[in-house]
Amino acid sequence: MRRSGSPGIxxxxxxxAFFLAGCAGIGPGPVATVWDTTPGSVFEVxxxxxxxxxxxxxxxxxxxxxxxxxxxxxxxxxxxxxQRHLRDLARALAVRGIPTxxxxxxxxxxxxxxxxxxxxxxxxxARGQGARRVVYGGFSAGALSAxxxxxxxxxxxxxxxxxxxxxGGIGIGMARGLDRPLIGxxxxxxxxNAEGNGRQVFDSARQGRLTAIPGASHCDFESPxxxxxxxxxxxxxxxxxxxxxxxxxxxVAAVVDLIRAPQRSRATSxxxxxxxxx
Length: 278
Description:
Strand content: 15-25%
Largest sheet: 9 strands, mixed
Order of helices and strands: HEEEEHEHEHEHEHEHH
Radius of gyration: 17 Å
């Protein structure tokens, strides 16, 4: 049986808590910091982007001292989460020489994630960076926004979805028209991932590939997570740290493969159009 798995009830339940936690973590960043690692240094460069809707989007670019590709990864957090929870993945990608940008979406509201608008914002932000190839990625509702961004951007090399949660069939519609790889990691079905409704999205994609992480909770796909997520979405099995390391390693490998794959033309592909509603 196919599940509709609407996340509306869960969103209504957790929105106040995520709102408070998210606001507590958003603030002005440093002018620039350097994270020393191997083989080189990673510069963290904060910036502010103004959405077409007029709202303010805080971003953080993890820029390797020696980029290995003329490309970019753009990562979006989950519903009412923020870019702090993508830090480990962004740093790991930058260590591999891939410039990586995270963002705090400004379109979300307590009554709805507005993932289509966030996807359009991700596309616009990536264009401003001037990269020739872009991998869009995200966690939960952020993975849905990443899928929208890839559908709208002709430079997209593919999508990384971490425990993707669909909303109103947006993901299924976007996946059906996507002519790039849609790579996903998936946890155990539960209320926090809308009973695993993201699986239908990957089933709808022409180049969808979904890998299950047995025992993984929704929070295992954040890096790092925090007490709020773990209290609302507790793991059913021990071993979250080991699962999180596996997820991080698989995620980095997927992005590296996508961004370094031979580029194909979209000349014969259906034209990407933005849906009218969220």
